[in-house]
Structure formats: structure tokens, C-alpha cells
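Hi support team,

I've been running sequence recovery on a batch of backbones for a student project. Most finish fine, but this one hangs at about 90% for roughly twenty minutes before it completes. I'm not sure whether the input is malformed or the queue is just slow. I've pasted the C-alpha cells below so you can try to reproduce it. Let me know if you need the job ID as well.

Thanks,
M.K.
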């Protein structure tokens, strides 16, 4: 079947334009630390109505941030999740450069996503990421081992609305059913912990919910498919993980009106 979803992969790329790369303090290995390893292999070829993959590394511009967000980890981050400075001294982008990056790399992606979500045959949005096996220093669960999959809808650990967080992006019963299906497929799963969801589901989810749609952030633990010391996904393991998740998504699609 064709999944009635738009799938987004905002952190799947390690590409950096040469003019920007010359300003970076990070080497190629350190740049890879900001890439969601395995997301392209697991989700990029799923039979969905639309799959939108980032063309450039999140260090160039982070598609999962509000375009107005500034600061150390804003839409153009100045520090990575290991706490390292991204740019050489005096080489960080000024407002003019930031505006150029938004026009060239950010707005076209979100314009295409908006157009896809306006299609009547697309019932939901799946924003897909991968995570380190242990929370890095700047994460909310620093130093803690993580479950296989984290599902987020901007809610609490039951998938229900939390007044402190705002609107949920997927009904709680569907979140719990999705969790149960993944657990039956052999994955360990948490809802909204350590991540409650980023900009993409928070921005588009409230627009989908009134028409019976949903938006869910999916984080997959890299320990499932990246062998220790390999630094790259195992094709066999990513295929297995992807097949298991796809079967669950087909079941979830059947829950939608």
C-alpha cells in the first residue's frame, strides 16, 4: 500500500556548501555527529505519498527550527550537540548571511512541505530522526541510555495534552496504539521522553488535526543499526528496522478516517 503520509527527514544530510564549509571549525567526522544516521536508509524509500529529504546539513540551516529562532542552537546553530563551536573565530554568519541561507535552503523546503500537506490524499506527517544510544551532553537525558524508539506529539508520557506544552499534534489513543504496535514488533518505546517534538510537528500538526490528520515525530535509536565503531549504518540492519516500522505504519494508516 501507499502510506497516506508525508515523511520529512530534516537532518539526514552531511552536505555543506564549500563557501560555508571553509568557515567551520568542525572537521568531517565532527560534522557527521550532527547527522541523523540511518534516517535516509530507513524512511527515505518508504512508499509514502511524499518524502522530503534535507539536501544540506542541519549546520547550514536547521529545518526543524522556527525561521525566527536565533541563539546558540537556533535555525543556524553556533554550537553543536556536543557543545562545540561550529565556526572559526570571527566567521559566524551575520544577519545578512542568515537571511540568505533561509531564502536558499530553508523556505523552499517548507514551501514544498506546505504544498504536500494541502493534498487531500495526505492524512498525516511523520517527522523522522535518529538518536544516539546515550543522551549527549546537551540533551535533556544526558548520560542516560535510550529506548529503541521515541514517539512525540507535543504531549505527556501518555500522549495526552499537557497545558504547559500546548496543543498536541496527534490524538493520544493513536499514539498509544502506535506504541503498542511497535512494542509488538519487538521495539522498546517511550512517548514524549526525552523529546516532546520539534518545530515541524508543532507547526504543522495543529493544522492537520482539525481535518482528522496527525503529525508525529519519530526518533530511532542508532544502536539498532550502527555497529560499534563502524560510524555508518549496516544495510542489513537498517532494512530490518525499516521493514518492522513500515508494517506498523501500514496499521496506523488504517486507523485514520
Amino acid at each position: 500500500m501507499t502510506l497516506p503520509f508525508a515523511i520529512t527527514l530534516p537532518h539526514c544530510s552531511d552536505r555543506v556548501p564549500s563557501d560555508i564549509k571553509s568557515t567551520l571549525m568542525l572537521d568531517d567526522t565532527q560534522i557527521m555527529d550532527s547527522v541523523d544516521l540511518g534516517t535516509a536508509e530507513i524512511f527515505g524509500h518508504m512508499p509514502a505519498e511524499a518524502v522530503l529529504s534535507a539536501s544540506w546539513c542541519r549546520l547550514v540551516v536547521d529545518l526543524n527550527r522556527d525561521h525566527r529562532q536565533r541563539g546558540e542552537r537556533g535555525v543556524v546553530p553556533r554550537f553543536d550537540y556536543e557543545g562545540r563551536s561550529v565556526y572559526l573565530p570571527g566567521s559566524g554568519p551575520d544577519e545578512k548571511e542568515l537571511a540568505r541561507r533561509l531564502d536558499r535552503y530553508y523556505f523552499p523546503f517548507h514551501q514544498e512541505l506546505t504544498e504536500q500537506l494541502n493534498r487531500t490524499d495526505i492524512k498525516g506527517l511523520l517527522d523522522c530522526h535518529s538518536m544516539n544510544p546515550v543522551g549527549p551532553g546537551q540533551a535533556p537525558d544526558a548520560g542516560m541510555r535510550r529506548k529503541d524508539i521515541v514517539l512525540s506529539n507535543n504531549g505527556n508520557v501518555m500522549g495526552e495534552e499537557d497545558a504547559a506544552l500546548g496543543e498536541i499534534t496527534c490524538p493520544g489513543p493513536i499514539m498509544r496504539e502506535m506504541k503498542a504496535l511497535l512494542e509488538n514488533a519487538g521495539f522498546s518505546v517511550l512517548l514524549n521522553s526525552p523529546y516532546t517534538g520539534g518545530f515541524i510537528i508543532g507547526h504543522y500538526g495543529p493544522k492537520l488535526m482539525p481535518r482528522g490528520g496527525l503529525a508525529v515525530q519519530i526518533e530511532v535509536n542508532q544502536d539498532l543499526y550502527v555497529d560499534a565503531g563502524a560510524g555508518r549504518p549496516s544495510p542489513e540492519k537498517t532494512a530490518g528496522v525499516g521493514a518492522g516500522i513500515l508494517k506498523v505504519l501500514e496499521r496506523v494508516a488504517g486507523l485514520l478516517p
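--
Follow-up from support: It reproduced on our side and the slowdown came from queue contention, not your input. Strands lie at 3-9, 48-53, 124-131, 149-152, 189-191, 214-221. No action needed from you.
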